[in-house]
């Protein structure tokens, strides 16, 4: 081969074959289209597993039905066993195999074994491409690697939670500049290389007690004071630095997407609810406060509970009810007399719904809080945010360390994905809450256990 021919061959894009596991498609039904011009292989056993989810009322069921529709569309375009063109030079095909795994791998994981066998068979009969088995199952990746397969997790943007954007910049300044910030209500930025709506913790290098809090305004290239309410938000006031930052972005009507990340007891949901009620009732900026959260056990674990769907939902929505009633300041005697969050719902001020019911709606003029957003996939978060109508503000709250969804983890869930994607946008803001304010015991539990 000549030097020129070798260079041309080296410049050619190496084609790959990706064999997908079931959880990849349930995580993101659009995964079929995300492998550019490479080949995507779907083991027939994956389709059998997806079929088991198609009647579920959960997000998994919805994703399963979407995958089935995509595959049926491919079937109408050509022969799925030979491959149907997608993304131009790419293709999708369905594969089956009679190959058996080594005896050491024979176990109760019968479906997983058949999927692995398809991947091995594909690798055996593919000489011109690199074959990669893609799954979100950690144990299955280990087993696949032991069989000699190239394996990858399905995730284009993994983020170590310890490296997640905090939303705060600590800036050391001479004491006279901090004094000038208090006097003038603004401080010009010498260094404009910050992110939009990033918060600033100004520190005096010579006096650690001399500090100030502000928000970076890139349009004006300055640091501005935080928004504050003398009366608080329905009596709720920030108790620490991060909560002050959170209140600022919750009260700022120019910020349309707020992400609040923090462990249990840091006040994420409480501050969001208080701000929402303040904006709806006191300032009339929004028509309604809509609060929702994903219900993963829906359709599986609530069937044995008595009552109608609303009564079945109560155990999963109760944390929201408790926070609303705390903000309302209801005493024990008032609760005994029958006062509750229901009063706000009857007035049309408040609406509390499972996330399943929000999908497909257009939501204008509302203050929307999505609690426990760490349980959502990036695709689901995209679906929710795209529901926002004119003059709607969305708040995503959650703790990436407490995940119930088996198809996401702390590095690739929808909440973390939204933080990363929107941190450079002027209509979005983020803060990571670190200090627990629920109680001394709760803070110790969150840190020690």
Would you kindly provide a written description of the structure presented here, covering whatever features stand out?
By secondary structure, the chain is an alpha/beta fold. Helices cover about 35% and strands about 20% of the residues. It contains 15 helices and 17 strands. It has helices at about 5-10, 20-25, 45-55, 60-75, 110-125, 140-145, 175-185, 240-250, 270-280, 310-330, 330-335, 340-345, 380-385, 415-420, 440-449, and strands at about 15-20, 40-45, 85, 90-95, 130-135, 150, 170-175, 185-190, 200-205, 205-215, 220-225, 255-260, 290-295, 350-355, 365-370, 395-400, 430-435. The longest helix has 20 residues, at about 310-330. The radius of gyration is 26 Å and the shape is globular. The N and C termini lie far apart (about 65 Å). About 40% of the residues are buried.
């Amino acid at each position: 081969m000549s030097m020129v021919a070798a260079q041309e061959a080296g410049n050619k894009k190496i084609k790959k074959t990706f064999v997908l596991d079931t959880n990849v498609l349930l995580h993101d039904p659009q995964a079929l289209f995300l492998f550019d011009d490479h080949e995507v292989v779907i083991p027939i056993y994956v389709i059998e597993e997806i079929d088991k989810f198609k009647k579920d009322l959960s997000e998994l069921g919805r994703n399963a039905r979407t995958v089935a529709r995509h595959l049926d569309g491919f079937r109408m375009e050509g022969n799925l066993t030979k491959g149907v063109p997608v993304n131009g030079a790419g293709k999708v095909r369905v594969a089956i195999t009679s190959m058996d795994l080594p005896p050491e791998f024979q176990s109760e994981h019968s479906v997983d074994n058949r999927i692995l066998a398809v991947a091995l068979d594909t690798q055996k009969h593919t000489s011109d491409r690199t074959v990669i088995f893609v799954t979100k199952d950690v144990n299955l990746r280990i087993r696949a690697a032991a069989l000699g397969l190239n394996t990858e997790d399905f995730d284009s943007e993994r983020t170590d939670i310890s490296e997640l954007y905090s939303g705060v910049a600590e800036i050391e300044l001479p004491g006279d500049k901090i004094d000038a910030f208090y006097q003038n209500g603004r401080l010009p930025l010498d260094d404009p290389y910050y992110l939009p709506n990033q918060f600033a913790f100004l520190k005096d290098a010579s006096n650690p007690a001399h500090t100030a809090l502000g928000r970076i305004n890139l349009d004006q290239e300055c640091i501005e004071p935080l928004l504050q309410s003398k009366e608080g938000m329905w009596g709720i006031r920030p108790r620490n630095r991060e909560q002050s930052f959170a209140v600022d972005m919750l009260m700022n009507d120019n910020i349309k997407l707020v992400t609040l990340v923090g462990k249990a007891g840091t006040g994420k949901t409480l501050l969001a609810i208080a701000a929402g009620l303040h904006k709806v009732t006191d300032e009339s900026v929004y028509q309604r406060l809509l609060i929702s959260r994903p219900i993963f056990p829906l359709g599986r674990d609530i069937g044995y509970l008595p009552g109608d769907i609303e009564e079945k939902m109560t155990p999963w929505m109760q944390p929201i009810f408790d926070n609303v009633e705390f903000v309302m300041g209801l005493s024990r005697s008032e609760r005994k007399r029958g006062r509750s969050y229901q009063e706000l719902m009857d007035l049309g001020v408040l609406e509390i719904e499972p996330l399943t019911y929000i999908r497909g709606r257009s939501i204008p003029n509302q203050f929307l809080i999505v609690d426990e957003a760490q349980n959502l996939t990036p695709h689901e978060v995209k679906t929710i945010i795209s529901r926002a109508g004119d003059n709607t503000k969305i708040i995503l709250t959650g703790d990436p360390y407490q995940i119930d969804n088996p198809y996401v983890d702390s590095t690739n869930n929808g909440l973390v994905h939204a933080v990363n994607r929107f941190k450079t946008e002027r209509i979005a803001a983020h803060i990571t809450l670190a200090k627990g304010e629920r109680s001394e015991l709760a803070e110790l539990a969150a840190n020690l256990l």
